[in-house]
Amino acid sequence: EVQLVQSGAEVKKPGESLKISCKGSGYSFTSYWIGWVRQMPGKGLEWMGIIYPGDSDTRYSPSFQGQVTISADKSISTAYLQWSSLKASDTAMYYCARRVGDQNAFDIWGQGTMVTVSS
Amino acid sequence: QSVLTQPPSASGTPGQRVTISCSGSSSNIGSNTVNWYQQLPGTAPKLLIYSNNQRPSGVPDRFSGSKSGTSASLAISGLQSEDEADYYCAAWDDSLNVYVFGTGTKVTVL
Q: Over the stretch B12-32, which tens digit does the pLDDT of each residue have?
């Protein structure tokens, strides 16, 4: 079965660092781009950026450039999203998703990781 | 603030047809294909339509997509209670260099 499994919910304080993960299985992890999508509480979907695990080519949305770091370890079929200094406004659900073909469609989604940042 | 505009809500009774619009511009819908996602309450989004009008395996043919110029539409025919969800259109934007999602439409089955 093709799937993406994300790490569990996190509760952090402002200023702390965090790295969440997304592990792919059931397909060639290095052959598909993996994107990250933010959904703030009660809000819509926002594309944060994307990485190609095969060569770690990474693209960021201008809105998230410099705010987060996207990376991947192809040896363990895992993509990451990390923050060096969290803010309360980073509280959201974060999804990873596999991009299929050239049409920018995301066909497989992780279950989501809820990140809560509160003092 | 999304560059793809959808109506905030749509509704219908079981068996009815519901249509959701998605309005964009020449830099996104006008020059790239449109995808649609369904997000059931408390779950991750699911790809519903890709490349304007293609259904992934397993998606019922009650769902159909279309595109004309800088707008796209999702139609749900034979509405069912399990179709209650949020629906998002999405497309690449060549000017912003980002994948943009629509504002989202909540579908309610009356």
A: 999 999 999 999 999 999 999
